[in-house]
Amino acid sequence: RETGKEPPGPKPLPLLGNLLQLDLQRPYKTLCELSKKYGSVFTVYFGPKKVVVLAGYRTVREALVNYADEFGEREITPIFADLTKHRGILFSNGETWKEMRRFALSTLKDFGMGKRVAEEKILEECGHLIQVFESYKGKPFNTSCPTNNATSNVISSIVFGSRFEYDDPQFRGLVSRITENIKISGSAGIQLYNTFPRLVGWIKSRQVILKNCETTMREIKDLTQKLKETLNPQICRGLIDCFLIQKQKDEDSCVKDTHFTEENLLYTVSNLFGAGTDTTAATLRWGLLLMAKYPQIQDQVQEELTRVVGSREVHVEDRKNLPYTDAVIHEIQRLGSIAPIAVPHKTSRDVTLHGYFIKKGTTVIPLLTSVLYDESEWESPHTFNPSHFLDKEGRFIKRDAFLPFSAGRRVCLGESLARMEVFLFFTSLLQRFRFIPPPGVSEDDLDLTPAVGFTSPPSPHELCAISRQ
Ligand code: HEM
Fold first, then answer.
1. Which residues hold heme (predicted)?
2. Ligand 1: which atom is nearest the Cα of residue 113?
């Protein structure tokens, strides 16, 4: 082969590959360690499956941005193939992905992603979330459920055109199945299934995921049916209406091979919930936990909010006048690193990177954690330090290595929406509440070890939200 040598890596065992070396609960940890030994492009074997890992800011950026075509396809692992049958956005490629991504992006824009409509919807949800926090009256509570409900409802109002009440049983089921699936899909059992799909297809965790998914799809179908019955082609109440109208148009004009099919609609909707709920809520939970752990930083955020916004509602427009708070939010996302291995990619053709040859169809992991903790990019990568995003005069500065949403063709589709949500939820909550550890727990006791899962939220914990008014 004249194209170069293969990326280096630890020697694999027959069949097992490097499985025995990998921490299957938190594979990103082992992968970060391996990158210290083997460099920024290396190979590991998940059982018989060869995976190329990209580590560090420069390499990840170079591959995903400069070689966007070569590295822009999605690897569809056995569990995700089971779940989505290559439909929707997250786990599809080719024309299906292109059409669905384009549709979702343009519809989200129409519904105000980065604009006023989304802001209104989020602010409405902030009001409901604040009420829930108030209802605990300063007593300790687990922040998971309320934050997941709030972020899920933002997606609901964009997709269905309306939000749910938090005690609606259908909504509760929807949210709990999404969070359960994300959690289980990162478990060691599912890693094993992805490695040996024929051998361990029977495992319980896979059955739970499949059942959850089946129920969710049925419910999204029922909700879609209700929207169909009341559809007015002149008014799009949400993304589903827009899809149904486009579907009808394609049918009326006999478009062949249309991607506007019911299957694609259901999977696209479920992808938006799946990708948009837990990620955003986990970021918010990291934020509240870090504020409770570092009260001096919380003081400074609250001082800035009081000075700049006072007690009126916070708006997206305020962000530029809140440099310290903005820096804190960026630092929460950096340290939280909630998508440590992004979502695996694969190469669409043979490619040579840094002199290493990577064959078409190879699974590629962009190790986002290694970018967000890159020692040559960040002054103190392992500490919570908002100064990473501030200049000497206290002005907010952008940092190139801030890639929590990944980069290139597959960059998070919900980035603007997510950033707006995190900003508005975080500031609205800090305006009203002081976050402290439960009685008997010190700030030092608050544990920053992430939970196991496909995403990396904080471990289960309780906080007290003390009203500031
Ligand atoms: C703080 C919150 C969020 C973070 C950190 C995050 C991060 C990510 C990351 C790392 C990826 C994978 C990129 C890659 O493959 O290289 C991704 C993909 C995706 N995200 Fe997000 N995300 C967040 C919120 C959202 C929201 C709110 C939505 C929904 C509107 C969303 C929708 C998606 C979709 C549909 C994809 C798949 C894109 C594709 O395959 O083309 N995400 N996100």
1. 412
2. 30
pLDDT score recorded for residue 112: 57
14 assigned to some structural domain: no
What CATH number is associated with residue 48? 1.10.630.10
Q: How far is CA 277 from CA 215, 232, 281, 370, in A?
A: 18, 28, 6, 24
- Angstrom distance (rounded) from CA 299 to CA 302: 5
pLDDT in tens, 394-451: 999 999 999 999 999 999 999 999 999 999 999 999 999 999 999 999 999 999 999 9
Q: How far apart are CA 424 and CA 314, in angstroms?
A: 7
Looking at the domain assignment, is residue 1 inside a domain?
no
The fraction of the chain above a pLDDT of 90, given in percent, is: 86
11 within a domain of the structure (yes/no): no
Domain that holds residue 284: 19-467
Q: 5 lies in a domain?
A: no
- Ligand 1 atom nearest residue 422's Cα: 1
Cα separation, 264 vs 83, in Å, equals 13
Strand order in the sheet with 433-436: 141-142, 462-467, 433-436
For atom 21 of ligand 1, the residue with the nearest CA is 412
Ligand 1 atom 7 nearest Cα: 405
Taking CA atoms only, the protein residue closest to ligand 1 atom 1 is: 280
- Tally of domains in the chain: 1
